[in-house]
Saccharopine dehydrogenase (Flavobacterium limi), 435 residues
Amino acid sequence: MLSKSESERLHIVVADLSLALAEKKINNHPNATPIALNIFDTEERKAAIEKTSIVISMLPAHLHIEIAKDCLQFKKHLVTASYVSDAMLQLDEEARKSNLIFMNEIGLDPGIDHMSAMKVIDEIRAKGGKMLLFESFCGGLVAPESDNNLWNYKFTWAPRNVVLAGQGGAAKFIQEGTYKYIPYGTLFRRTEFLEVEGYGKFEAYSNRDSLKYRSIYGLDDILTLYRGTIRRVGFSKAWNMFVQLGMTDDSYIMEDSENMSYRQFTNSFLPYHPTDSVEIKMRLILKIDQDDIMWDKLLELDLFNPNKKVNLPNATPAQILEKILTDSWTLEPDDKDMIVMYHKFGYELNGEKRQIDSKMVCIGDDQTYTAMAKTVGLPVAIATLLILNGKITTPGVQLPINREVYLPILEELESYGVVFYEQNMPYFGYNPDLF
């Protein structure tokens, strides 16, 4: 936004609880003003919103609703990268009546996934094709040149979301017209493999609810609908060790966690034995040998270190595991991250079954200017400018699934290196009798 502020004649107000952080973000740019803003101070928040033309909210998702209500009061458009909540949806009618655009889910996932998928789906329908299969995968990973640990992974976004991934109910999807469910305990042993030219082989585990966008995408009659998270091959099998031990549990607090060592934390999930070491007990319960790569992955994380302290009071197992992993999986200043997105579209046209695979890889610059920040932030900024310039006009609470939204945004994203490459593939059909 700042880079286009001159040509677009914009003045941008950057609000943060910390004035110093707001100042750092604008870096003395002449077309921006930093302000300190406590969003829980109603008068202060309303005063700031009333002065704007459009509001971009990058707050935690549950806080958007108060911003949205203020936007309704002062007749301001709103842009967020978060999932549409039920509370936000309830504002749709009022937003339409006020001719306001409340654009949500306009980041990476959700966001670029919606737009790149709907572009191809709409093109297939325009040719008279009938959708049979839609599979969509996305992952935030470490770029090959910075991939220097045995897990082939580093945190590129919220670590807590990684630790808690897959919890809260069985993953559900539809395959050849049959509903499928994967409970959390086996989620990371049910993976699908993907090949991306120039980057090798990946795996994907199922997202918790692949069906939530079935009606939104107009795919109510589709036979196969599956959404998954991409990792490097071998990650899921290794992560499953934490799941089976119970280290990803976020439902209870561990006693005296603040003074616990990493070794004590690990031993907490293992049975007592009068002579066996923590290491031996771990290998026995996980049924792994000392020359197994799985063992090396555990050693790499320093899980057995008696001198490292957790230093987290009243912490859950998941919070402690996140702390331990952050020691090893934080991007170094010169590290580059990588976003991989992969869609499969199966369809029938003129009696023939066909398939299109669409793939996108985006590499970050360093620890600060990451591919994750780029692919979340750019769609937000582009959408905001399109709304300001009257290029997006449909009012209401919405996702970026309409042509007036996704076509110009995808086109501009290509100029920033976010490019999807589509390939015609043989249709990967299923035999319904086997499902």
Summary: Residues 371-388 form the longest helix (18 residues).
